[in-house]
Design a protein that fits this description.
The chain is mostly helical. 50% of the residues lie in helices and 2% in strands.
């Protein structure tokens, strides 16, 4: 079907309601299931469930631009977290169906389970990092130009990381509300992003590395190590902490001096090579960590919204959105044959 084959003389145009007096079911379900952080739900409620008059208004084209764009971003954060939750559930169901090399053929296993499990993990990473990027875009709109290089329409959480990595300096004698909330955002988020000690160090750069690699190279591009449990006969899969990682480079074609059947201690190399929790626990932890960061971030944005009473159609934001526009001449692909 082509565009010219559809009616373009319209009597009625349908769109989502611009004013609401109750939450949408999608939001209520995500909140009751604890998929979205409480702080995001609170901001949603304070905006009267994303009513136009509680955002930037609908009086001018500029106000409508900001209102609709903010509502889309808020929904996008919710959907990223909902998708991540659903993908995690898929991983739980697929994990026990994967091939277990310890069990003799024809052990029952789903030949598609491993591919689908890897695919779900790949999409989970994309959604988690996506939710952080959308949050950064909201910061650029609600606190315009308070984070260096953070521009509405093309903001990424990487831009925020550069800012969070530096000391928070407030030198002005008089601090504006926007500056105050930006300072609060820095003070509360920085310790979560830059963990200086303990097992969570480098959690975000590692998460982003895997997201980037599996998004660009596919979910078969990383190695999984299956290890048997000490306490039971279960099998867990672990992934490396570096990229590229090719364990085969350490292999040898020579005859092993170790007699067949003797145990060889790999604890030293495996603890250096691999994450110290399996893929299932890592996925759970990544969801919790991202949700924690979003919760702290949305708490600050909620405080800013309550004090500022609305989201201003700032000229700076409008300029950023205009400069972020991209347009192309594509119309359609030629039909097959």
């Amino acid at each position: 079907m082509k565009l010219q084959d559809c009616h373009m003389q319209l009597r009625t145009v349908l769109t989502a309601p611009l004013e609401r007096d109750e939450p949408e079911p999608e939001w209520s379900n995500a909140h009751e299931s604890e998929i979205i952080p409480e702080q995001l739900w609170n901001l949603y409620r304070s905006t009267r469930y994303l009513s136009g008059s509680a955002l930037a208004g609908m009086e001018t084209p500029q106000a409508r631009m900001i209102t609709v764009y903010v509502a889309r971003l808020m929904r996008s954060v919710r959907e990223c977290l909902v998708d991540a939750s659903e993908l995690r559930e898929q991983m739980r169901q697929l994990s026990p169906l994967q091939y277990d090399p310890r069990k003799p053929y024809p052990h029952e296993f789903d030949r598609e389970a491993s591919r689908r499990h890897r695919s779900a993990f790949r999409s989970l990473l994309v959604n988690l990092l996506g939710s952080l990027d959308v949050f950064a875009d909201l910061v650029a709109i609600i606190l315009p130009r308070r984070v260096p290089r953070l521009a509405a329409g093309r903001a990424t959480f990487t831009d925020m990381e550069r800012w969070l990595a530096k000391p928070n300096q407030v030198t002005a004698a008089v601090v504006t509300p926007h500056e105050h909330h930006a300072s609060e955002l820095h003070n509360r988020l920085s310790p979560l992003i830059f963990v200086v000690s303990g097992p969570e160090r480098d959690w975000l750069p590692l998460l982003r590395m895997y997201r980037n690699k599996v998004a660009h190279l596919g979910h078969e591009s990383y190695t999984q190590f299956g290890l048997e449990h000490i306490s039971d006969d279960g099998l867990s899969f672990f992934i490396p902490r570096s990229w590229p990682f090719v364990a085969e480079q350490y292999a040898s074609s020579e005859v092993s001096p170790t007699p067949s059947g003797r145990l060889v201690d790999f604890s030293d190399v495996l603890t250096r090579w691999l994450m110290h929790q399996d893929l299932e626990e890592y996925s759970e932890g990544a969801i919790r960590k991202v949700r924690e960061v979003l919760g702290v971030g949305f708490q600050v944005l909620h405080e800013a919204y309550v004090q500022l009473k609305s989201i201003s159609p700032s000229q700076q934001v409008l300029e950023d959105l205009e400069s972020s526009k991209q347009s192309f001449e594509f119309e359609y692909f030629h039909s097959a044959g």
